[in-house]
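Protein Record: Sequence and Backbone Structure Tokens
======================================================
Scope: a single protein chain, as residues and as a discrete description of its fold.
Tokens: labelled as protein backbone structure tokens, with as many entries as the chain has residues.
Position: the record begins directly beneath this header, with no further notes in between.
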Amino acid sequence: MASSSSLGPFSPSPPSLIPVMKEGECRNWAELPSELTSSILRRLDSIDLLENAQKVCTSWYRVCKDPEMWRKIDMRNSGNLGLNLETMCRHAVDRSKGGLVEIDIWHFGTDSLLNYIADSSSNLNSLRLAICSLTTTDGLTEAIVKIPLLEELEVSYCSLSAESLKVVGQSCPNLKTLKLNREAFSRFHYVSDDDALAIAETMPRLSHLQLFGNKLSDAGLNAILDNCPDLEHLDLRRCYNLNLFGDLKKRCSERVKVLRGTYDLIWDYPYDESVICKETYQDPYSEYYSYDSSSDSDYSDYDYDSYYNDDVYDPFKKKMASSSSYSPPLSASVPQLMKREEPIRNWSELPPELISSILLRLNSIEILEKAQKVCRSWRRVCKDPSMWRKIDMYNDGDLGSMGYDLEIMCRQTVDRSQGGLLEIDLWYFGTDKLPNYIADRSSNLRSLRLIMCYPIADEGFVEAVAKLPLLEYLEITYGSLSGESLKVAGQSCPNLKTLRLNSEPDPKFYDEECNDEEALGIAESMPELRHLQLFGNILTNTGLTAILDGCPLLEHLDLRKCFNIRLEGDLEKRCSERIKELKRPDDSTAGHPYGFNIEDLSGPRGYYWDEF
């Protein structure tokens, strides 16, 4: 057998190989290779890294300071964190040490920040600005001219004029992807080809273009097609001035590999309808962006020269901190486990409940494919049945590119729950056998969500749901189940309180197609219902009346896109008096989680545009 020296002096052992430990031994934090730690931490966004991960221990803090961790900065947030995100973002840019390649900024930012990024990151390839209400077109233009290597730019619901777009194209000759998303005005169709002409004149290398809600006309689109010969992906959703018919439609179909038309669905669009479809836009989060020192908001913990200053951990600074003339602002807030004099913590000292708290942020696929492979202690936590009380098999539906079988993976998670499974969400996959496998091993199941699980049919569903008597929450979104199956569900699950039955509505045929089978199945078998969502159902007033008669406890009723319902007279009065929260057929689809928007359904006739 060759000795280890036969590998040569320049062939070190792979860093990912860790000696096998004997039973009872404890692993030291320092023994986890830094590349594995960084692989874990890169799954978090930049806010989580700064606010949470770097505070865990010295080794994690060391990894979080590595410039490689900041080649991409992801500052996505919901807009209401109450943090000084601009200060945090600047600090993240500093940590990249000029190596920043991608940055995403949501719900905050000023012109000063954009220029700070550009001055510090001349190699930036991707810039994404979403709902940054305080940035101006001049500030963005000033920053863009400093990043000539930019290949991808998204400006969603921010200020950017056509003239600035032209500067972008001239300054960034390698630009291949542009996403310019604006509010979709469905009522007042004024025309402007300024954006389109600026793109056509200055961006010949574009391959991906998204113009959500733009005011361009056929002339502007033709100019883009004339001058962007490499264009392969074109998204024109909510561009209401376009008429994609005849020669123009033929030209687009022949030239563009992936074309999204004006009325195509927006299920994959990342922004809430409250933003994308309004006649005037008022940023609801602007109150969080004020940097006025007189503001009542207390950002003292995030002072740029204190809280996120790396020098806090410098020995000289610590020496200075001991003098009476210097009082570091972090003296009370830095966790004890991060101070340098602390001994290195080993894996066994991190409580399992903390590890599980971290891992529960991931969905079930990520836990099986990533987290459990990190180390023995993480795998031990991942095998704990309490980690599998809820199984979330969320995925984007691109099953062919995943490289693994979701049904097999789901069965494994069910096995790990050891009968303790309470909630399960299935997306885009499943056979008739899978619901039965779940039901046979999870008789205590309380919540079942089947979302776009088209292969699961009546037979498999009925057989499974009959074994789930404790079920309280059932969602079937874009499935193919009959009213008879719903009746079996109601009869088998006497505690059912929430039913979400979402269909794909088509207003073009709603006058010709009516069916109360599902409504009657609900009315006859679900007397305990409190929440009922029938999005896009083809029930009539008769079916709705039957539901009101048969479900006396109903408090929340969602009838959006139920085009056969006529809420008038006594029926409207009865619904208003009985139902605490009523969503009518023509109410806005804001808040619907699967991307349906009123314009997806209305078509050129504009049946329901008056709601905006």
Notes: The CA atoms of residues 462 and 485 lie 6 Å apart.
